[in-house]
Amino acid sequence: MAYDNNIPILLNCRNRRCLIIGGGRVAARKASTLLDVGANVHIVSPVIKSESLQQQVDRGQLRWDQRTYGADVIQGAFLVHAATNDAKLNLIIAEDAERLGILVNVSSDGGRGSFTNPTVMRRGRLILAVSTSGAGPIASMRIRDQLEEQFGEAYESYLDVLYRIRATIKSVVSDEEIRRRLLDQAYRLDILGEIERGNDEPWSTDRIKLWIENNQEE
After folding, report:
1. HSE on the CB side for 72, CA within 13 Å?
2. In this predicted structure, what is the pLDDT of residue 218?
3. Are the C-beta atoms of residues 27 and 4 closer than 8 Å to each other?
4. Which ranges constitute the DSSP H helices of 37-128?
5. For residue 126, what are the contacts with CB-CB under 8 A and spacing of at least 6?
6. How far is Cα 140 from Cα 196, in angstroms, rounded to an integer?
7. What does pTM read for this prediction?
8. Domain range for 40
9. Overall domain count for the chain
């Protein structure tokens, strides 16, 4: 049973214009998340009240438009965070964004926007997002902490190896049926166990190619 109308997706924000309306603590948190994934971050606010946000402006990591909000500022944005301390203004921003077909998050009322930000656990290539559909951020963070224990640092190396195996298979094997069989075999290898046991033999490109050569024939 679905408790809300949301579906989980991953958005590619690299080099996309992402706006944050607001200059406080919430805006700073949103900015850091977007900067981490390579977004072009623009802050729109008369003042900046967050020290970390001001430092990011000073370092040239993001652009600050020192002005009050007007609907014209969100034109052409990929997404917008309405993160002011004025709940009524946040709803106006959301209405403007939705009218223009722009994704919008409302920090003061998550249900009024078109997307929310889940609690996220990142482990290299592994991204696990947690939403409790309104049960609260503390619950989400506790679940994330449990996931961090379950999926330890070995998973970062594990997924890197799988990525390289998959890429090599796709580049050197032209037969689609053989590709599928090799990929299925690769996912059955105990690579994670090797890493967790501290196996010193790395999965180099040469080792991967040799494994493919030895396993192409059924």
Report:
1. 3
2. 65
3. no
4. 51-58, 87-99
5. 151, 155, 156, 159
6. 28
7. 0.85
8. 1-117
9. 3
